[in-house]
Write a structure and sequence with these properties.
Strand content: under 5%
Protein name: Stage II sporulation protein M
Number of helices: 12
Largest sheet: none
Pfam family, one: SpoIIM
Helix content: over 70%
InterPro entries: SpoIIM-like
Keywords: Membrane, Transmembrane, Transmembrane helix
Radius of gyration: 26 Å
Organism: Methanococcoides vulcani
Number of strands: 0
Structural class: mainly alpha
Amino acid sequence: MEKEESSQFKIKRKDVIWSVKLFTLFTILAFVFSISVYVVAFFFSQPESVSAVLISTAQAATSEVDVVNEAIISTSDAATSKVEFGARYIGPLYSVFFFNIIAIFVTSIGAGAITYSHRIVFKELILRSQHPFYSKISCNMEKLSSPFFSFVQKVALHIYPDIKKYDVDEKNDSSNSIWKHCGYTGEDYRAIASVLPLIFPVMTLFLNGLIAGTILAFFVFNGILWGIQTAGFAGIVLGADFAFIYYFASILPHGIIELPAIFIATSIAYRFSRIHSEEIIKGRLFEAEKEEDLKEDIRRIEDITGAYLRSRYLLKIFSIAIIMLHVAAYIEIRLTPKIAGYVIDLMGLLISRTLI
């Protein structure tokens, strides 16, 4: 029985594809947005500010590597600031390691733990039924959020297109319905409940994509700017190539291990979310009008959550991710700076010969 429960949470190919696609989307959006901000800020700067910031072409020809180095140092400081505080006490390696462990723990475990919030909602509904004045105020406030509930319903149907056929009929107009005390319907709540576990994996992918895209934009913009200053418009490709090469040299050594570990955590969270959502829709949960029926719906959800959190498969996946993150942290602190330094020295030498 336990093996059967664990097997339903095993990561499928489509779960991993979902994680990779969403991370890629967030990275692209962050890159495009950041580049746009850089370009707008550059072209709308006052002439005096531009003159003060930009170095002359003659200076660029003799100090091109120094200019890029300064940009890289600034970017590196921003990217590693998250672990500086912890590094004061346990060192940078374990600071990076524990920070990433917290991220995958919140992602994988949090996706299940957040479903226990249904208990809080249920108790609040009971409170409304006992206090009409409080119920009236709450309903009026929630009715203002009807566009939000409509948006969540559309998002839920977009994320889970294969469960559209399980749409249910509303009965909230009944005088005995527990939902009559709300400014939202049972259908609204089902939509929110179905996407609730996705909050943590989506946020994890969003934050990592935001960091990756923003830093890439910083590298590319400064690389292109340096290329133009050094060799005119013909230097755009040269500067962009330099930026891309250094960016990947700074990310790939540890990222090739760290990102899969993150994808593992987000994929299993997404897998649980799908099972959780399908149970809500197929089981017609939260359609109940009576307190007793709603209690039973919550119990069914918590049974799934409990099976997920206690599953050996989750423990196995989490253990593998921890090992991967430990290796990635070691590479990031011990090897990546050396590899990136070697690459920038090599690129600087090649560029110097090209410009001569």
